[in-house]
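Example record

One chain of 107 residues, shown exactly as stored in the release files.
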Amino acid sequence: IVPSTCQAVPACRYQKQLAGCSPVRMIDLAALRKDVPLPPLPAALSSLPAYVGCGDTDVVVDLPAVEELAAWFGVQPVVWQGVAHDCMLDTRWEEVAASLRQFLDGI
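Predicted structure tokens for this chain:
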């Protein structure tokens, strides 16, 4: 789930560290299917700023799913070109960080 341009050794080391942090899986994709489509966004949350981003080479979460999530929050998704699912491991992580920083600076 890391980009092909990423060095294998550091990526594998990171994945092992991440897996060792908790015995609980972060996301159970099979269980997630039961919750789709999402219920309406609670009114109390609708005024909060939201940021939805994805890489266009993500093989875990496809663009239609990201667009659905962004629509749920009432925002447009940010799509990073050539970025994989684990964007923090991608060689283009600085582009991702800069777009998130720009969002945060605007809040």
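Notes: Residues 56 and 81 are 5 Å apart (CA to CA).
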